[in-house]
Structures are given as C-alpha cells and as structure tokens.
Amino acid sequence: MIRRPAASFGASGLRLRYGDTLALDDVSLTVAAGQVTAVVGGDGAGKTSLLRCLAGAVRPDAGDVRNPGSLRLGYLPASSGVYPDLTVAENLAFRASAYRMPGDTATGRADELMKRAGLSAARDRLAGQLSGGMRQKLGVIAALLHSPELLILDEPSTGVDPVSRADLWSLIASAAAGGAAVILATTYLDDAQRANVVLVLEAGRQLAAGSPAEIVAAMPGSVVGTAVPPPGEAGLHAWRRGASWRVWYPPGASYPGERIAPDLQDAVTVVALARDDQDRESDMHGQPTGPSGQSGPSGQSGPSGQSGPSGQSGPSQQSWPDGLGRPSEHGARTLAQSVGVSCVFGAVTAVREVSIQVRPGEIVGLLGANGAGKTTLIRMLLGLIPPTTGQILLLGERPSRATRRRIGYVPQGLGLYDDLTVAENLEFAAAVFGAGTTRQRAPGRPRRHTPGQPDQAAVLSGDPAIPVGQLPLGVQRRAAFAEALAHQPELLILDEPTSGVDPLGRARLWQTIAEAVQAGAGALVSTHYMEEAGECDRLIIMADGQVVAAGTASEIVGAAQVTVVDAANWAVAFSELERAGLPVALAGQTLRVPGVSTDDVERVLAAVPADGKAEVDRVYQAPATLEERFFDLTLAAGRSRAIA
Fold it and tell me: What is the pTM of this model?
C-alpha cells in the first residue's frame, strides 16, 4: 500500500518478483528531505525496480512504500522520459500541463531551468536531435518542473560525459538544497561519493547502506595492496586497481604486508566478495544461492574465472606533452598513430591537428566531453572515415580490412547480435576474423594462450540457448570482450567498455584488458568514468577537437587546487554560492568550488544573513580531482575557441 507522510519517504521490506525472478528481496530505505540518496549496483541489481516501486509505477508483492503522491513527485526513467518528436520547450509545456501548473508559473519555471541547464539556446530543437547529455538534462528539468517533494532519477548520468554530469549534479544538489528528497540510481561510485546516503544492491539484495564513510567503516576484514595477485584461494579475493592489486582478507584471517585505508570503491567490492563467499558456501551445501536460485549474481566472477596473471601489471608510461608515449618494454613498434590529423565535415571541424600514438604494452585512456572529437578520431584510426589532412597509421600501415582483422574492437553498443546466442555470436566473429587459421603475425609476436582471454565456459554460464538481447548487461559485456579477444588481436580499441557494470565486474573486465596488454597488445580506451582513468598508463584529454592535455592522471592534475567548504548547513551555503554564480559542487556534506579562491568564497558566505544559518566550519584549499581538472581544461578550450 502507499502511505503519504509529511516527514520522509522510502520503503520497508520490499519484495518484487517478475515471473521466476526475484527482483527485490526484503529491501528497505529512507529518503530524507534535503538529502541525496544514491542506489548503487550493476545491471540487474534491482535499482530500477526499487525506483519504480517508490514512484508507484509498480506495485510490490510485499512491503510498504511511502511517497508524497503522484502529483508531488518527479520521476526520470532510464530512457530520459522525453518525447523525441517534441521540442525542448514543447516537452516542458506538456509536462507542466500534466502537473496542472498555471501557464505563467510554468513558463517562468521552464525558462529558469532551461537557463540553469544550458538548454536555452536549444529550446526550439527537437529532443530527438539533442546529444545524450542534453537529453538527460532535459529529462531532469522536466522532472523538476513542478518543484516535487520527492525526486526519483534512474541513472541520470550513465553514458553522460563529465561536463554534462557536472551540470546534472548542479541541478540535483539544487533540488536537495531546496528541501526535496532526492534518490537516484547509478553504477558510478564517484556519483555515490557525492550523496549523503548510499544503498548498495546486488541481484535484488541489500549489501550495504549508510553514508559513504559509514559503509567504509563497516567493511569487514582487511584490504592489502600488492604488486601481483596472490596464488590459490586468496586470488579469488583479489582485484586490479590501477597499476597494482587489492586483496581482501576476511575477518580473523592473517594477511601479509600492511593494510591500506580502503575507500568506497574498495568497500563496495569487498561486500560483493563477501556475499559471493556466502553464495559459494550455500551452494556447497545444496542451498539456493541467490534470489533466482542461480549460483550467484552475474558479473561476480571474472571473465576468465581466474584471479589474474602471475606477472606484474603493465609498466608505468611517461609521456610527451603532445600525447605521444615513450617506447614501452615491448619495443618501439607503434600500433596506432595519428600525425597532425584533422577532419572537417562541411563547416564543422570535428578534429584539428591531433597527434597520438598507442604502443604495445600500454593502456591509453581517451577522455573528452561529447563533441570533443573522440569518436571521429577512433573512426579515423579504424579507417572508417578518411582524415581531411594528416596521416593515420594502423599497425604500421594505412588502415584497411587487413589491418582491421588484427585488432579487437568493442563499440559502445557492444556490436553483438541480439537475436543470436553468445556461442553463435562468438562463432560468427571467429569466422569473420579467421580465428584458428594461419595469419600474418608481427615480428617477435609469439602465438599465445593467455589467462586474460575470456574463457568461453565462463561467458556461457547459464542457459546457452538464451539470445544475447535477453542476457544481463554484465554477461553481454563479457561476451563482447570474448568476441574482441578471441582472435588474439594486437590492438584493442574499446569505447566505454564497462558502462553499466557493477564495481567488481568492472574490475574483472579491466583485469582482462590488463592481461591482454601484458601479453604484448596495446589498448586505446574511451571512457567517461574518471575512476577508470587510474587503470590507464597515460591519458589523452580532448576538447573542441584537439588534445588539451596528455600524461598520467597525476601529471595532468599537477598542482591544481580546489576550494572546499565544510558547513553544518550545506544547503544554505550551496544556495548562496550558486546564487553568486560560482561553480559549486556537492560532495556528501561538503562543497567543492573549483577555480575560485578561498577569499572569494569566504566573501560570499560572509554576506549570508545571520538567520540564514550557513554555519560554516572552515574554508580551505585541497588538491583538485581529475574530474575537476578535466572540467577546467574543457571550459578553457571552449573560451579560447570563442575568442578565436
């Protein structure tokens, strides 16, 4: 049943079943007014089912839901919930009429939100012609239009570039600062770090709940850092993190070396490993191991079903200022190279004078906002479109069908056939690439069988007759990796390869990439997920069609600082800083203001009336994050282009 209290919203003891699948198993949470609650988990974790129950779109089989009623809540579905054949303004006008808003009030509110979301110039464009980030922003402001008491957002930032994500979070934090109870679903732990409260779901079950700090403090056992994964059973508790490894030791177990201070990503990975142990223990005793009676949630085991290679992870790469890496230990042979390439489409220059290199034994991360030129550059490297000027070399030659047969490519859409099974997809790919046949190999490149190549038995776990389109996203991504690696490619080109995957599954997929690279391949990886930048040996950041920074994450961040505000009443401080036009961002209970001095921030906060009660504890400088540095670089590139 639906209750409508005035104080707080949420759910108690929710159970929901779709046929034979138990989507939610005794899930409870409270969504407090004036706070942001994040529900974290991979595809199939139960996030959408929980949010749909809260919104009243689905009636649970058991449990209570507390919401303010349909006219007092705002809901953003995972599809963005906008009509593609209506303009931005028409979408908002339709939403206003659905919520019975007076005409003048609706127009003023729509204009205000469009301005804040940066959509004023696009008000007459069809929603179907907007970029993914712009569509998500339109969906969020449509949900905010009637100033709801409860704002429900289903994965608002998935697949959205960091610049658009910052705009989205500004809208989300403003809603919470205004007193709304906000709950959002996400697969990104850096999104979860911004929230006041986090609920971790997996296969419909609640793994952890509390503030990010509380979840870390409650993590069982110990985490130890190591250069290589341990052998034997301990390897089942190891996961790759950057250029090193983390190993979890359960409570009471002895562990070698020094403990490290875990963060939220470590803690969420550990609770997933602990639940995996419980499932294996139950399975050994013949008991059902998950809500659907399967042997554990999808994405738990690694693609290869092994703990990792016996050697160290790839070597750290130094970089040149223009993004060209120094030769790796595998030699100076270049796998992919662009030399001063530009690409022009009519009056639009999508890529301008870009030079990059990818060599064996290195993972190169390609970062950039939507429209930065990343996809165009990748398509030129693949030989799918020619450069207007400059030179492209793929495996030492001009791109061709012959060179493309020697690469492994995972597009953002995965490139799988939905109506074929995993086995049929792999069989088709093997035929296309001639896997198992004799082909030309690079000098000094031996035929290999590496543990990093996904084991087909692991990918095919479950019913092998199920078409790919009906499988969980984590299994689909493992299948796409298996397909890309089956012919032992010399170069991997991966476009958002882990989007939508839970943290442990994401670590396992990065383990697969690292193992292929350790064996001599190279990898170019495009990602919007800033935490994944730590998995790369070096990064290339593009903005406005050109390279604006290159090097390791620490080299790119350098000495950049951000102003941090600790305030007992963060909402008042946030509202005042936002009103002053400063780029303030919410991070839990603290505020971060990049590109602004402490003096300027203190000046704004000092003007808050005494009855405003911002209650600022301190204002200080702290090292900037990679995402904040990325944002600054992107904005600077836009300003430079506007001046030119």
Answer: 0.80
